[in-house]
Design goal:
With about 325 residues, the chain is of the alpha+beta class. The protein contains seven helices and 16 strands. The protein folds into two domains: about 15-55 and about 170-325, G protein-activated inward rectifier potassium channel 1 (Immunoglobulin-like, Sandwich); about 60-165, Orthogonal Bundle (Helix Hairpins). The protein has helices at about 35-40, 60, 65-70, 75-100, 110-125, 135-165, 260-265; strands spanning about 105, 130-135, 170-175, 180-185, 185-195, 200-215, 220-225, 235, 240-245, 265-275, 280-290, 295, 300, 305, 315, 320-325. The strands form five sheets. Strands 3, 4, 5, 9 and 12 form a five-stranded mixed β-sheet that branches. Strands 6, 7, 8, 10 and 11 form a five-stranded antiparallel β-sheet that branches.
């Protein structure tokens, strides 16, 4: 960061009509009055997760296996499925063993438990090789129950796989820092982002809200200001997009020094809404920037790669690179 005495400079006169007059004070973002007055931590973490937590919820009341499985990573998902398959077969194998050693007959020599376990696997998965067969009415009834359980299990796993596989996934990459950079004769807050996946996203809309503490009538509390953007939406983003909030007299950043801004414990909340061009479903990405992630008097480095074929390319590895400018 540069000198804390640096101040937002006045823009040239041709910027007077850049911003619409919509930079109004917002009382709340849905966070709540108590959190606004008492909370000192970040509302949004860098990965987009919320910093606040809810306590006192019962585990069974608040836990949803369906949503947990959808949000779990693929290795965890398959590990849980494999563990569940093993546990169910061990339970049924134990029930077959309880029916007696003569309840199942096998064409090859194996222990009572092995016979019960492999018969359970074959019944649950509807394989039915025929080398292990039930020898009692109780065993037949138990295999009937297990076959029905297997049908339900296949339907459940199929539904989970389809829901998880078809869920639109997004990986919007944000620059690690937000910059106060020169912009059209004045200054602007700049954040750069790009799509981190091979698919395309379209119809993007961006929102940046500044959250900072202010003392009003002797009471220090948090206030929220939506920051008007030079461009708040784009139709396509095949490469990168730099969000720019021009700092004019309508901006809550107008005339502030880095020291003043840091003292107000600011947090720039960024939310992106877009549409996945392949499945045409809405996706959302979010992040935030604190005072420690704000770089004063800098500009983003060139991200474009120039090739002889003339095609436009960017190097995503340069997304967060920037250059400090002379004071």
């Amino acid at each position: 960061m540069s000198d804390s005495t640096a101040t937002i400079t006045a823009p040239s006169a041709n910027l007077e009509t850049v911003l619409p007059s919509d930079t109004k004070l917002r009382d709340d973002l849905g966070i709540g009055r108590v959190a606004a007055e008492v909370g000192r931590g970040r509302f949004l973490n860098k990965d987009g997760s919320f910093g606040s937590q809810r306590e006192g919820l019962g585990f069974l009341e608040s836990f949803s296996p369906f949503y947990w499985m959808l949000s779990a990573s693929w290795p965890v998902f398959f590990a849980v499925m494999a563990l569940g398959f093993l546990v169910v077969n061990l339970i049924f194998a134990g029930l077959y063993v309880l029916l007696g050693s003569d309840s199942l007959m096998a064409s090859v020599k194996m222990s009572v438990f092995e016979r019960a376990f492999f018969f359970s696997v074959e019944t649950l998965s509807t394989i039915g090789y025929g080398h292990i067969v039930p020898q009692s009415i109780a065993a037949h009834w138990l295999s009937t129950v297990q076959a029905f359980t297997g049908v339900l299990g296949v339907a459940l796993i199929t539904g989970l796989l389809f829901a998880k596989f078809s869920k639109p996934s997004s990986r919007v990459l944000f620059s690690q820092q937000a910059l106060i950079a020169p912009f059209q004769g004045g200054q602007g807050l700049m954040i750069r982002l790009t799509n981190g996946m091979k698919n395309e996203i379209i119809e993007l809309q961006a929102q940046i809200t500044l959250s900072k503490f202010e003392t009003v009538n002797g009471v220090r509390s948090r206030h929220y200001y939506p920051l008007a953007l030079e461009r708040s939406s784009v139709v396509f983003m095949p490469l990168a997009w730099t969000l720019v909030h021009p700092i004019t007299s309508d901006s809550p950043l107008w005339g502030m020094t880095l020291a003043q801004l840091t003292q107000s414990t600011p947090e720039f909340l960024v939310v992106i809404h877009a549409v996945d061009d392949i499945v045409y479903q809405r996706i959302t990405a979010r992040t935030s920037y604190g005072a420690e992630e704000l770089v004063w008097n800098a500009k983003f480095s060139d991200i474009y790669v120039h090739r002889d074929d003339g095609a436009l390319r960017i190097d995503v590895r340069r997304l967060s690179t920037y250059q400090l400018l002379e004071p």
